[in-house]
């Protein structure tokens, strides 16, 4: 599933980050979106875009196009 499909409050483990048309995936990997890392979906903007994700101790706001580059496996209870 894509990171953009994970519901608010749920966690997911990153499986793969695609490169993207302009190399956006490379930047995501550089800031911590690497395979095996747990991501928690914190909140979405009122119109649904962007969404705030917590990766380790950092929060990121990503638009849907960026979150669609990240393939994840949803987990029941996110680990802190």
- What oligomerization state is this entry in? single chain
* Cα shape: globular
Look at the structure and give the CATH class.
Answer: Mainly Beta
Q: Can you say what the CATH homologous superfamily is?
A: Ferrous iron transport protein A (FeoA)
Assign the structural class, choosing from mainly alpha, mainly beta, alpha/beta, alpha+beta, or little secondary structure.
mainly beta
Strand content: 35-45%
- What is the β-strand count? 5
Largest β sheet strand count, sense and barrel closure: 5 strands, antiparallel
Which consecutive residue ranges, at least 5 long each, have pLDDT under 50? none
Strands ordered across the widest β-sheet:
4-3-2-1-5
CATH level-two architecture: Roll
CA(first)-CA(last) distance: 21 Å
Round the mean pLDDT to the nearest integer and report it. 91
Question: What is the succession of H and E elements?
Answer: EHEEEHE
How many helix segments?
Answer: 2
**Fold-level CATH name:** SH3 type barrels
Radius of gyration: 11 Å
Number of domains: 1
Work out the helicity level: 10-25%
């Amino acid at each position: 599933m894509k990171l953009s499909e994970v519901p608010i409050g749920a966690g997911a483990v990153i499986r793969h980050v695609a490169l993207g048309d302009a190399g956006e995936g490379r930047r995501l990997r550089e800031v911590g979106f690497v395979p095996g890392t747990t991501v928690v979906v914190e909140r979405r903007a009122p119109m649904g875009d962007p969404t705030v994700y917590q990766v380790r101790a950092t929060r990121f706001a990503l638009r849907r196009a960026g979150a669609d580059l990240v393939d994840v496996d949803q987990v029941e209870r996110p680990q802190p």
